[in-house]
Amino acid sequence: MFDTMTMTKVLGALCGTLLLFLLGGWVAESIYHAGGHGDHEQAYVIPVEGADSGDVVVDAGPAFEEVFAMADIDSGEGQWRACSACHKLAVGENGTGPYLYGVVGRDVASVDAFDYSGALIAVNDVWTPEELNLFLENPKGYAPGTAMGYNGMRKIEDRADLIAYLDSLDD
């Protein structure tokens, strides 16, 4: 019925068809995106009475001081779980990162038994709540070259809760 040559031809035809569809999709995609669609101004703009000039005002949200004043320490303890993978709370007990007992108000890079990357020393002197907020939002953006591999906390409320929890530990 089917010999080896027939099976080879059928398999070759299927692979060729698949290759033709993939190549066609690639060509269509390159034609569609190569035209520079959307890179130019509108050809005709309809003026609308009462419309603003197009300036977008971004609401920065509440100030950190306001959010920090209303921070929830119990919620901050829940936020600590993510930090506990690399940091410890006991004095002198470092993990991948330095211990964080008493970090609020402490000098940057002041843990003697920990080897800091140097990027933090160049950026800041003391870990105030405001500085911790900026660091926790985006560690790599705050101190480029830092060895901390954390992507950051996006919500300002979560950062304020965590900082309030850390601040409450050492009275």
From TrEMBL:
The keyword Phosphoprotein does not apply. The lineage of its organism: Bacteria, Pseudomonadati, Pseudomonadota, Alphaproteobacteria, Rhodobacterales. One of its GO terms (molecular function) is metal ion binding. It comes from Octadecabacter antarcticus 307. Keywords: Electron transport, Heme, Iron, Metal-binding, Transport. Residues 71-170 form the Cytochrome c domain. The gene is cycM. This is Cytochrome c-552. Gene3D superfamilies: Cytochrome c-like domain (1.10.760.10).
